[in-house]
């Protein structure tokens, strides 16, 4: 299937060459280090290149990330391999009011800033938990998308013919999943069980959107593989093995964003009547509400404040189900610019209100205002050992990063 996908992308490139008119190149070059207790656990060179060839009527676009690691890196070297990941590669054609796109894409629906409940299609890259930048968190998927625009209205339909699973931290890596203490050892199978590539496991979604007096709202529906991971335990003689699996669901969603003065409020939610969850080592079906509420406050041209709360609720007996991974998360950020915008201070935080664990990410940035930025980001985990973030309490990091945008 991977060879067929690659062949399809190459055909798209050559098919568009004869019609394209313009070429644009953008991206960045980045060098970063993760330092934990005076030990460098990651040294990474990271180029990102975005290519767009053509004009608005017909173009091909690609977004690729490269990851390079020095030979002398000693800590966790087996978990960091040189590679190139093509996040997006698609061809787009505009026929008057109808836009068609085919290829590998990020399809981001919704208004939330952190996690979008109505962004049904793209799985997550959780290999470094939530420490990745926003432009690396989502994985592109093969898709066929059509969008019809009529004034302030738009209608989009998307088909993803192949299931793409999330990327999870490998056991033994600095960010391996932590589990509650048991009487016998717990082992995590990081490979998981993705759905096969038959058409019955494809994803199909539709979205109707409208803009009115500064407010944007949408209604959506989806059927296909669940983006969320199900962690199912199996009991053996001397251990508990936990394996991530995926199931199909149907969901209905809505989102809205509207301004009130200098504040833009956002709400986004979905209802899934056939959510698959684990209870007593078995998979059961239940109803599930998943919602995000937040806002962005542009206090002035120097200060921005963002807050958001993410919550998932089962409609039946919640006490017997494993808690959702992305739920009960309160997030916020405060950004302030100083010295003619050369110095930027930002504080981000994620608090799990269920287990009272937290991840704080204060960041200092010096913007040379010529494309070059130098950043120092602190990753501070806190909480009890068996909580979402507390399990990484010994993995507090200092991330030193230099990035040049072009």
Question: What is the gist of this entry?
Answer:
Strand 1 (23-36) and strand 2 form a beta hairpin.
Please tell me about this protein's structure.
The protein has 2 helices and 21 strands. The protein is mostly beta strands. It has a domain at 1-94. The protein has an 18-stranded antiparallel barrel. Strand 4 and strand 5 (98-105) form a beta hairpin. It is globular.
The overall average pLDDT, rounded, is 89
Q: So what's the overall shape?
A: globular
Q: Tell me the series of helices and strands, N- to C-terminal.
A: HEEEEEHEEEEEEEEEEEEEEEE
In terms of per-residue confidence, which ranges show pLDDT below 50 for 5 or more consecutive residues? 1-9, 16-20
Q: What is the tally of beta strands?
A: 21
Please describe the biggest sheet, giving its number of strands, its sense, and whether it closes into a barrel. 18 strands, antiparallel, barrel
Distance, first to last CA: 34 Å
Structural class: mainly beta
Q: Looking at the chains present, what oligomeric state does this protein adopt?
A: single chain
Cα-based radius of gyration, to the nearest Å: 22 Å
Topology:
Layout: H1 2-17, E1 23-36, E2 39-55, E3 58-67, E4 83-95, E5 98-105, H2 134-137, E6 141-150, E7 153-160, E8 186-188, E9 203-212, E10 215-225, E11 230-235, E12 240-245, E13 248-260, E14 263-279, E15 282-300, E16 303-314, E17 329-338, E18 343-352, E19 357-367, E20 372-382, E21 397-405
């Amino acid at each position: 299937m991977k060879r067929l996908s690659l062949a399809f992308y190459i055909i798209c490139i050559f098919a568009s060459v004869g019609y394209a008119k313009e070429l644009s190149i953008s991206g960045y070059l980045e060098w970063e280090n993760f330092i934990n207790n005076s030990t460098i656990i990651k040294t990474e060179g990271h180029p990102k290149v975005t290519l767009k060839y053509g004009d608005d009527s017909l173009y091909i676009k690609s977004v690729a990330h490269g990851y390079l690691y020095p030979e002398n890196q000693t800590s966790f070297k087996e978990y960091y391999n040189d590679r190139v990941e093509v996040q997006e590669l698609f061809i787009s054609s505009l026929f008057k009011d109808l836009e068609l796109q085919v290829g590998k894409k990020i399809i981001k629906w919704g208004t939330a800033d952190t996690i979008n409940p109505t962004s049904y299609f793209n799985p997550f890259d959780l290999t470094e938990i939530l420490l990745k930048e926003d432009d690396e968190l989502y994985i592109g998927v093969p898709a066929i998308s059509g969008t019809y625009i009529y004034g302030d209205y738009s209608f989009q339909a998307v088909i993803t013919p192949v299931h793409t699973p999330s990327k999870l931290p490998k056991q033994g890596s600095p960010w391996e999943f932590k589990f509650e203490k048991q009487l016998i050892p717990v082992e995590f199978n990081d490979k998981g069980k993705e759905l096969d590539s038959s058409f019955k496991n494809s994803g199909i979604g539709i979205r109707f959107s409208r803009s009115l007096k500064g407010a944007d709202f949408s209604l959506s529906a989806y059927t296909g593989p669940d983006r969320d991971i199900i962690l199912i335990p199996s009991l053996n003689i001397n251990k508990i093995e936990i394996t991530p699996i995926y199931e199909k669901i149907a969901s209905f969603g809505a989102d809205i964003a509207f301004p009130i003065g200098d504040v833009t409020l956002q709400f986004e939610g979905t209802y899934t009547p056939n959510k698959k969850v684990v209870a007593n080592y078995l998979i059961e079906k239940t109803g599930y509400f998943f919602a995000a509420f937040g806002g962005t406050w542009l206090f002035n041209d120097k200060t921005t404040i963002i807050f958001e709360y993410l919550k998932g609720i089962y409609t039946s007996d919640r006490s017997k189900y494993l808690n959702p991974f992305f739920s009960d998360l309160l997030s916020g950020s405060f950004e302030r610019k100083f010295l003619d915008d050369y110095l930027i201070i930002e504080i981000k935080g994620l608090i799990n209100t269920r287990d009272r664990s937290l991840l704080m990410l204060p960041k200092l940035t010096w913007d040379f205002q010529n494309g070059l930025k130098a950043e120092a980001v602190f990753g501070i985990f806190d909480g009890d050992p068996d909580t979402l973030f507390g399990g990484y309490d010994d993995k507090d990091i200092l991330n030193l990063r230099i990035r040049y945008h072009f």
